[in-house]
């Protein structure tokens, strides 16, 4: 019996191969510096852990409303006011099982089979695969190094067809770390309105930015789709909690989809996440962001000196996207070799698409500065062997 | 900007309306007996709560493998051996965020746009809506009262078209409570093989059955799809944890879909659910099933005497599907009236489809026997006012 066609379209991730190799080496006792995983090394804040324990003792763990606990929706809406000066109706906030399901929900609400979505690349590898689950198509829009990896309206325009239905932009970006300015959001939103396209903003790295808070799409429009997650800023990847802010006229449809797709988001996570909006907990997370910024600064000072060209301005998230063409045009082989010979694990560009995946790698700075120093030393030594 | 066409196809639930009315009445101080919710009234077993607290203290809450923690997959495989005498490769077990996502995963792996899935009705309301999310189509196969609401091969055969790709059967069934025998699974599987159809078994109420364990599709074939959940037997609805057993040749594709669709199932739930397989915890759950059986027996003795005809043999889950045609041919109005005049909340048949939704209601016996006695008294009194 044959499987669905989409099963042939959904590509595997190279990072999973890397993970396999890393685990094998570690089992052999090799010390590997893990710079390939897309999750912060900071654990869930103690206050959230404690709140979860309290909730386990005192609160029911039954189904709740498919769109989430009202109090949590209110806390989120209120944060948009505090962080972005935006007044948001809590009803537009739909709590989801991770940012992943927020993305899926936005796709399900907007896309018919065959519809095309413009995806700036390099970008998040799941996007085009997730689009296959709704039988839609991701159309890459290449970000070019000679334009600082900035998205241009020109590039969007060139990718338009009569099937284009939406544009999906992540800010801060994975793997670039680049951040959309308010003006850029404005321009893209205007472009989308001109061409009757939905604009979907993946803001799941929000909070983790180094030059003040990254502007939210909500600052420029009430008609866009914004997805968010507790995964990164709150170090809650395994809890599976995120949210979608939908345009007013789509909320009711999203609610119906949610009722069927996932019934309810993880309830304990919702009960616990509530304390994440308390000033002390937010402050703890911002202190962590300050530490992440120190790591970024350290790498920006050390890596270019090794002939490694950092693409874009990494002003958020915890990734550097690095041009290694001075050393290799086969990033996959480069990564495998760097891992084996130097014990440093990074991800080949192939996972992220874009114009030059074969000469790029992603480095996730999810280890402390001491360990990063060690990584830089190992990389330096390894690169010397290549040019020797 | 227009939304996706499927947003018009996904129907809302009447039970949500009922919930709204119930909450309004309760706010007015009215005592409502809640017999409309699809979740057990038993809380998560204390041992699982304790395990969760332990895990919060000692274990990481980061992403885990998209298909789940190996230990949990092994415990599940081992339970199929204990419960069903079936040897199962743990690799075929894919942990999911609730049975809902297991269903979605099976659909995504098997169905192309336009493919048809045969759905015995009355059945679980989400099925046909979920099928719209993958652009497939649910084709109802009516279960008839004069055949004891049993699925016949004849009825399946009549519904076949050249687009039919799969058959989805729930056992124990929601809303009927009926259970597929091993022979019935065998017959349907044979039918599916003859017609090159996938067979998907929704076994999420497994464990909650009153005449021994309900047979699993895995007892008759290795080529079917079986979905399960911690929601009902373990009283863990809000934790969002379930699993899919996929055919060997589909496991790798399911893994790729899971990596994109949900990344990881809730991790704390996985860590905690592990203790659910300990003999004492399983025993506690079976003791609860014994209590659920006593409730069923009580209702089977009292309701028919009121002229309420219980359809099918409710041998599992915690639902009765009741023919109210002696009193009304408008179940929606009947339910609203019963709620308002007698303070008993049940669900109109309309949510579940089938041949006679307008003369049927679903009663969920998720309250204790004392409270059920009260409900029966109230219903009796209410019915008398109708015939007076
Ligand atoms: C750009 C981007 N969007 C969405 C996600 C989904 O994350 P989650 O489902 O944990 O919220 C990720 C995870 O790495 C990501 O990098
Ligand atoms: C027949 C049936 N299948 C699947 C589900 C999904 O449940 P969950 O996602 O909580 O496992 C339900 C929930 O009520 C159900 O009744």
TrEMBL record, chains A, B:
- Superkingdom is Bacteria
Q: What molecular function terms (GO) are annotated for this protein? A: pyridoxal phosphate binding; transaminase activity
* PROSITE patterns membership: AA_TRANSFER_CLASS_1
Which residue ranges does the record assign to the Aminotransferase class I/classII large domain? Answer: 31-379
The kind of enzyme this is, by top-level EC class, is transferase
Q: Provide one Gene Ontology biological process annotation.
A: amino acid metabolic process
**Official protein name in the record:** Aminotransferase
Cofactor requirements of the protein: pyridoxal 5'-phosphate
Instruction: Write down the EC number.
Output: 2.6.1.-
| InterPro entries registered for this protein in UniProt | Aminotransferase_I/II_large, AspAT/PAT-like, NHTrfase_class1_PyrdxlP-BS, PyrdxlP-dep_Trfase, PyrdxlP-dep_Trfase_major
- List the CDD domains hit by this protein, alphabetically: AAT_like
Provide the species name. Reinekea thalattae
Which SUPFAM superfamilies does this entry report, sorted A to Z? Answer: PLP-dependent transferases
The protein's UniProt keywords, in alphabetical order, are: Aminotransferase, Pyridoxal phosphate, Transferase
Regarding protein family, the annotation reads: Belongs to the class-I pyridoxal-phosphate-dependent aminotransferase family.
